[in-house]
TrEMBL record, chains A, B:
The keyword Disulfide bond does not apply. Keywords: DNA-binding, Transcription, Transcription regulation. Residues 19-73 form the HTH lacI-type domain. SMART domains: HTH_LACI. Gene3D superfamilies: 3.40.50.2300, lambda repressor-like DNA-binding domains. InterPro entries: HTH_LacI (IPR000843), LacI/GalR-like_sensor (IPR046335), Lambda_DNA-bd_dom_sf (IPR010982), Peripla_BP_I (IPR028082). Pfam families: LacI, Peripla_BP_3. This is Transcriptional regulator. The lineage of its organism: Bacteria, Bacillati, Actinomycetota, Actinomycetes, Micromonosporales. One of its GO terms (molecular function) is DNA-binding transcription factor activity.
DNA sequence: CTGAAAGCGCTTACAG
DNA sequence: CTGAAAGCGCTTACAG
């Protein structure tokens, strides 16, 4: 093995030393059909065999010797497709895809954080130019499978632990939250609550931290009772808000982790007979289109969602064409959009 | 040649063309190596031979056959990706695709009604199982190209003239509009206006016709001044509504062709200092999620958008697997959802 | 789960 | 300039 390994690696400075399925098979001590099955993600290969073959494939930088090695496709994977949020990101990716004459294959994971079992196999058999995972992560094994297929990965608002080597795109969540909270403080609010999302998600964590930083800097203590964690949807946020409003000393302002939650605040306020912004100020996050038409129009932090999509797609195209990504992590700026859901607190 | 030609076409009930170098060679009366040389632009082919081979290649849309004959893909083409409307349809298509282990390739046309020049070529080279066109149409030539590639087409809310043979899916637009208008009539409204979309689109036309039918049946004349045609977005509808409200005898109720327009009505009412439903009743169409959280929650006609997506995808799968579609046109039912944007007209 | 054998589509090397 | 034959790399169908 040392001898053949040496021979193979000597030649591969530039010329992709014609590593064929047969070569890999020989080196891994299996037959060509087995290697073929591993490459195409077909079932029916023992896990240990698959691992061994993958290792050899990866080590020798196997490239399909056929033509048609790569399909002009971008894989776009979404945690869920449940808000305009997703639509704007898709538009961004579509824009780059159109320019580059690439097709976009869209997959939703129905709220799961990791693609299902069959997904990687499908992707490998499609041989796309690359994968963009939005608000979702791949398992280590799935990442390894993509790597063996030489399929690059870019994440957008990754969920779990930041992946060591995976380039990612996001927005300036921390500073957006900071500016939003300062806005409420400047209006004179002191009892400010926050509706958080799941804190294992870095973007949720960053928004909470930005909120806390602004409060600390202003010397206003954060009342732990006013910080609630819940799902990023309208209904749950409405329930949390209702609970907050029943407190002996309810908040005069709330900062929500996204616009959907902020809508839940609207709903709870309406049901409690409170008026926004007179009785309660609210700031959202995202600036989805309908925030402009809410009653009253919502003050929110704008995230350049479409541009996040184009950025991720452009990074992917660059990586796929052999360029090293300029940065591992790109954060696009956020802006506070002041509309009519925030005002000075009612003087008591 | 007649004999071989017949043999080829007889067998292809299920298996599609699979035009290989060998096929082209046979049809052009040359050998496979010669075709190979033409394809790869190699020298050493007589000009006349080259021309002949090129003609056959082009005529049969030759694609490199190394890859599989048909890719497990559904092409989903959208007129535009600008509303939750699109997202729900995508979810439906995704659901069927997931079950069938198909990928979904999403294309947007940026508001154009017909895919651009390069689109058909890309689709042909992807060899998908079929195409779903939403709120958009293909040119006759594009349809012919798909037909040559044996790629079936299903339309969802088709735009131009209903295509002779193209199966399509839609909602019960006429009866939905009828029921919505009756609801307003039953509340006591007589000066009812309607915001229309472009009437060359069958679904817009059907909603206007349903409105008229309900008015006629109730013996209430339609005032032509109260029927406005405009884009299906918030802003335009707000302008139209503002104009209607400035009329000497303004409407007491409006029926909008979609929820986005109805939101425009909300906006115009707010700016005119009118309250919904006290001063003006509004009914939308679609029942997008945010209508529930509007201020006040919107009365609207529910379209089963997700189910429209699954229905279109299921039709496509059936057709692709060789079944004749049970019906050419499927219309799913619509339901009036009464919330709080409609009330009796103010007595004067 | 695995491989020997057959097969596929394309290309190359050679003979005429 | 052209084709029969051999070859290449990968995949499929089958047997164990």
């Amino acid at each position: 093995m040392t001898a053949t390994g040496a021979t193979a690696s000597v030649g591969d400075g530039r010329r992709r030393g014609k590593v064929t399925v047969a070569t890999i098979a020989r080196l891994a001590g299996v037959s060509a059909p087995t290697v073929s099955r591993v490459i195409n993600g077909q079932a029916g290969v023992a896990l240990s065999t698959r691992r061994r073959v993958e290792a050899v494939l990866h080590e020798h930088g196997y490239q399909r010797g056929d033509a048609a090695a790569q399909a002009p496709l971008i894989e776009l994977v979404f945690h869920a497709l449940d808000s305009l949020w997703a639509l704007e990101i898709i538009q961004g990716v579509e824009e780059v895809a159109r320019d580059q004459k690439l097709g976009v294959v869209l997959t939703t994971m129905q709220g799961r954080l990791t693609p299902g079992a069959g997904w990687t196999e499908q992707v490998l058999s499609r041989r796309p130019m690359g994968v963009i995972a939005v608000l979702s992560d791949l398992t280590t094994h799935q990442q390894a499978q993509l790597a063996t297929g030489s399929i690059p990965l870019v994440t957008l608002d990754p969920t779990g632990e930041p992946l060591h080597d995976t380039p990612s795109v996001g927005a300036a969540n921390y500073s957006g939250a900071l500016v939003a909270t300062r806005h409420l403080l400047e209006l004179g609010h002191r009892r400010i609550g926050m509706l958080c999302g799941n804190l294992k998600w870095p973007f949720c964590r960053a928004r909470l931290d930005g909120f806390r930083a602004a409060m600390d800097q202003a010397g206003v203590p954060v009342d732990p009772d006013l910080v609630r964690v819940g799902p990023l949807y309208v209904e749950g946020a409405a329930r949390e808000t209702a609970a907050l409003l029943r407190l002996p000393e309810p908040p005069t302002a709330l900062f929500a982790t996204n616009d959907l939650q902020a809508h839940g605040v609207y709903e709870a306020a309406r049901e409690a007979g409170l008026r926004i912004p007179d009785d309660l100020s609210v700031v959202g996050f995202d600036d989805l289109p309908f925030t402009r038409w809410a009653g009253p129009p919502m003050t929110t932090v704008r995230q350049p969602l479409k541009r996040m999509g184009t950025t991720a797609a452009a990074m992917l195209v660059a990586i796929a064409s052999g360029q090293a990504p300029r940065e591992r992590r790109v954060e696009l700026t956020t802006d506070l959009i002041v509309r009519q859901s925030t005002a000075r607190p009612r003087t008591r």
